[in-house]
Design brief:
heterodimer; A: mainly alpha; MetI-like fold; 2 domains; 14 helices; B: mainly alpha; two-stranded antiparallel sheet; about 75% helix; flat
Amino acid sequence: MAEKKTLSASGYQFEEIKKTNPVVRVITYIFLIIWALINIFPIYFMFTFSLKSNDEIFGENVIGLPKEWLWSNFTSAMNTGNMGLYFVNSLIVTIASIAISIFAALMATYALTRIKWRGSKLMNSFLMLGLTIPIQASIVPVYVILSKAHWLNHYSTLIVPYSAFTLSMSILISTGFMVDIPYDLDESARIDGCGLWKTFFAIILPLMKPALSTIGIYAYLQCWNEFMFANVFISDSAHRTLPVGIKALSGAYTTDWGPIGAALVIATFPTLIVYIFLSNKIQESFIAGAVKG
Amino acid sequence: MADNHSVKKKSDIAKGVTIFFFLLPALLLFISILIAPIIVSVYRSMYDWNGFSEGTFIGLENYRELFTSGSIKFMTSLKNAFILAFFSVFVQLPFSLFLALLLGRKVKGEKSFLSIYFMPVLISTVVIGQLWLKIYNPDYGILNRFLDAVNLGNLKHVWVGEVGTALGAIIVPTIWQYIGYHMLLMYAGVKGVSTDLREAAMLDGATKWQVDRYIVIPIIKPIIRVSVIFAVTGSLKTYDLVRILTEGGPFQSTEVPSTLLENMLFLRNRYGMGSTISVMLIALCFAFALLITAAFKDKEA
């Protein structure tokens, strides 16, 4: 029996090799490579035109490598275009939003998954409504309240909504991680005299470290790239985030593409560099967010 | 006995208080930014309101105007959102599924292909929009120069500025950007299908396509459902690329609900109508999420 199994397994492998027509194989690879080029091209295009002068971009060298590497485009994006400031603004807003979202999510998840009470399921479904509610839902009332309170154009104008919008997903992802922690730990902590608070801070939180990066990455991408709220709520240049800053810059430099390209690179490359090192982790966080939902 | 009871009650109260405090930060954020605004929006959608005065109650008049008035362009915006949803579901998702199935077959370098295909998802839509503006530029854009170079100059267009091409110019980058996202989700599902199951089917003489069709796709149906929901609700909510590429133009032909919503606030001072649009958006998102879930249940049964 065992012998037969191995035989058929190798037979299957043989068959597979026979079945995969070399022509099909080559066509598959050509297709995969072309699609890869289509996906890399915009990044290549952005990087090269950020280093070119108008003469090159509008002349003969549209898509080639820059003949003369014009780093001054980056200086003008940073100085005249204020991209340095917008970068810092994005960083502040993003980090604060992620921190608040993670903190609130972990506490809520603890109450939802590790304390037994009636209504915890219902509460969970309630909080999961946030996965379907479009952020447009709150734009009018929040805008009116904030403008009446003269609270537009602050960092917190964006931080609070961003933490709220990422909250449901943060709870969803951290639930996935928290239910994997053995419940015996809680019980033995209880026997040792730990209350619920102490169990949370001393036992559960340290074990949730792997979840932090997964939640953090997801929230980072939401906040770093968010445009609608930032565009509506922030009108002064001192608090603009990168997406709004880029829009303003492109309005100011309609004929000068180099500095715009530089601004796009400044906004994008941090993400791409992190992606090169953490691509698996980043992909995992997207999968965790969707598949468990 | 009575003592025991009261002790238990006391600890129940303590437990309740603890639960409350653990939930407090999340509930504060969630209710103040999402739930309360929805309630206010529903209420204000029945007002003629400029945002600062008290406003006048007009019942469902805003809703009637929204659907019947030609000058608000809500029907145009809905039509555009639905066209986008159509292309997402019937072009983007099948292509994503195709890529996921292809990469799920242990091609050499599948991880690298996967990582490259996912890259556009990470880039801000504002950046994507700016890049495509440079591609579409009528004088210097790559697209028109390419058409010139291959002697198809008569196909050149002012891509984002002509009524005939503007919506298409928005749809192409939108669909392209998120192919990688749906592919990743589906790929995760495809990889979850046990190799034993595949091999067993192959031994029975099934071709790879048959294995995909009759074994893999039914197993990953829940993921496809999530993708369809995201694609449709995402299309209803779309904003960024429209704002960057066309600003809703030319002649408001590419408006979507979210750009109209913003116009109501900043161009027309009609906060009541803005609330009406956001209520419609919420209702549509939930309705489609439920409809799609129901449709998939039917098929599964």
